[in-house]
Amino acid sequence: MYGMIATWRMAFEGVTKGTEILKHGGHAGDAIEIAIKEVENFEFYKSVGYGGLPNEDMEVELDAAYMDGTTFDIGAVAAIKDFANPISIARRLSKEEVNNLLVGEGAEKFAHKEGFERKNMLTERAKIHYHNRVKEVKELQLKPYSGHDTVGMVSLDVNENMIAGTSTSGLFMKKKGRVGDSPICGSGFYVDSKVGGASATGLGEDLIKGCISYEIVRLMKEGHHPQEACEIAVNNLDEELKIRRGKAGDLSLIAMNNKGEWGVSTNIEGFSFVVANQFQEPTVYLTKNINGKCIHEEASQEWLYNYMKTRTAPLVRK
Ligand code: ASP
């Protein structure tokens, strides 16, 4: 069996490429790297890689991680600037004995020495978003942090290897040096090839509080189907946060087990995800949480059309 699951519609083209690798007996790591690079390289996705939205100093600082569920190799970068493909740097770091998670300048130095492609990741479009947000925050007293999404994926190959990967520009308007859940093992991602893997998107500060990706893998190990595991973990964390803190941030999780069965849960409206396996071509779904149960519906042609249209629509500086 092979399979792949990923957060958000933006993963569709990547998952399509990744699945081609898996179909031909390729490694889950190659599938996930190619899939995430595809998202990182597409400039109209404003929360991952090139075109990602900047921090409050108008710098694009990126977080990414790669975990091998067979060897437990983990590599991650946080707050890295000016490199085209953070996922590839994270994968390379996963092969090191030590120094697996590098931040900022240290990560950049490593990437430079290893010959990774340098790129100014701040696009003209992202600059317009930045200027507009500064204006909105001042005039309408809006929260600056909305408008973020991480691409998180889990892949399974025919040799039963499982990989998890993430890549994000984190929260728009974050403080310089802010690190979210995406490069943090157990929170933004976790995978064990003997069980399955999970990955998160949403408010990093809250996802971290539940070590939620690990929690989902732990629940799958106890025998829960990925759908049940996702629902239990998301509902519990959402409830605990509300009890203890009066509110819960956005929490959306995807998971796949080592049989290619999958699950998704969220506490927001309109979470989209992409899934594929031996029996299913890459498909975009939208999910809704109704009283703790998540209902997944295939995205309509109209929704898919509008999605791309709004992403690529011309942008004007306000
Ligand atoms: N989880 C990411 C972060 O907090 C952002 C997101 O997934 O929307 O950095």
UniProtKB/TrEMBL annotation:
UniProt-recorded Gene Ontology molecular function terms: hydrolase activity, acting on carbon-nitrogen (but not peptide) bonds, in linear amides; peptidase activity
GO biological process, one term: proteolysis
Site residues by UniProt (Cleavage): 149-150
Alphabetical list of SUPFAM superfamilies matching this protein: N-terminal nucleophile aminohydrolases (Ntn hydrolases)
InterPro entries tied to this protein: Ntn_hydrolases_N, Peptidase_T2
Residues holding substrate: 178-181, 201-204
UniProt KW keywords: Autocatalytic cleavage, Hydrolase, Protease
Catalytic residues, chain numbering: 150 (nucleophile)
GO cellular component, one term: cytoplasm
Matching PANTHER family: L-ASPARAGINASE, N(4)-(BETA-N-ACETYLGLUCOSAMINYL)-L-ASPARAGINASE
Record protein name field: N4-(Beta-N-acetylglucosaminyl)-L-asparaginase
Organism: Clostridium amylolyticum
Lineage of producing organism: Bacteria, Bacillati, Bacillota, Clostridia, Eubacteriales
